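# step 3/5: fold
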Amino acid sequence: DGGRDTYVGTTLATSFGNLFSKLDLVNQKDGGWATRMIAQTSILGFSTILEHNITRNFVSEQFTGTGDSKLNSSTTLRIDGAIALFDLPQMPVSLSFDHDRFVNGDRTSTVSSRTTVPIGRLSVTHTFDYSQSKTSSGTSKTGSGTILMGGRIGDVRLRGTVGYDLLPTKDYGAITLTAEKRISRNLEVRLGLDRSAPPSPVNTYSFGLNKLTEWSAWGLDLQYSDDAVFEARVNMAMSFGVNPVTNRPIVQAERTATQGALLSRVFVDHNGNGTFDEGDVPIEGAKLEIDRGIRRVASDADGFLYLPAVTPNRRMVVKVDRDSLKDPFLVPVKEGVAMVANPGGTVRLDFPVVTTGEIDGTVFKVEDSRVFPVSGAEIQLFDGDGNLVKELRSAFDGFYLLEFLPPGQYTVRIDPEQLARLGLTADRIHRLTIDGDGTILNARDFMLRKIGDDAPASGDAPATPPSSSLPAPSEFDDPSAVPSASPALSAPSAPAAAPSGTAPSDGPPVPDAAPVIPVTPAPN
């Protein structure tokens, strides 16, 4: 009646094992009281909930009624779970029982069930409700059910319902069936049949066509029914906005008023400062990937992308689609950036791209008067902070290639643990710089010798590693820092020759007295 009620309540809850119980007591000022008892547990894998309510002259939003029609008490039992029959997937089932008692002595009992059966890519759900009411004027019973179907057959999406009545009379209810098929990425067709329930059933046939263009969404709906009624509707929807880059109006099919927006710029960052400035080059045709989905919009000639319809209030990861960059040596500086768009707001994320470089070289082993290419040498690459970023093994001819390296300071070495294990020492550690112009550093070679062998003088002494995580050069040279010599790294049997009397570009020269010969296993 528009008035105000005051309630005072208390709750007691406890649990024992897998049994949970709760008791609620509520008192209505200038009125009655109510209590609710709930018990919940699991029996043979089925969730079981028992609830009992008692009211005495109590009125609330849940418990309504006046006079003798007020609820006196109610009991509900609900069981939920899943069963597996034969080779079928698990079938969710639900069964509930409700019993209501009223002040005037009327009683109503209801039993409801729901079962879902998956059949391939289809799911069929059957619901049935049985109700029995006892009043002073007699007893009445009703029983009705519904079969719901949804899923796909091939590339056709189906939805349908069939209703039926068992009590007080047997008859079928309303029938609906809808089939949808996507003809192309932007075109969808729909067929439907709707038959109303007896006693005066009417069949209605429908046809729908949905077309999505770059700037609008169109829909055509046609309906015809048995009572000679024909309907035709044409729908068109579009959204208006302003591109914040060009300040020009934009029109598109997606709804944008309640969506967020993303503005990005993709460019080659030549100076590596992460900001587009003089000398940097915008990338045209780049696309963004948002939560593993590639957006169709590509960057313009100035490198800008504007996405005006982004799901709001949800954390998403945005990255540049590398395939859209065309040049495989271009890589984004940011692998992925997390963002949350607000409705009506625009998030600005720029993606600088750099040109990667590469480092290659060959690993040799000098023993007595022979030089061998070494396969299986473990090459390690560290960044400027001393973090190990790549590891690989030299090929059959001793060659190694470290590619797709972003600009920065790097250190290349042979794994000192492998050298110690084999009783070898390397002539150097390479400290190198990859610039933002696609630097390619060739012939960064290594010369390995047994511990204690004299190495020829070199104008390029081993460099100190950039981090304490890298061993000092003395650890390669001090025989006491490594175990006694063990068999050398395996050398391939395939022939490979190098010019006599030459050496890697920044390694020590090979003495003329030690000519390079065809590769054979090193002597023990």
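# step 4/5: annotate
The helical segments are 416-422, 474-477.
# step 5/5: archive (pending)
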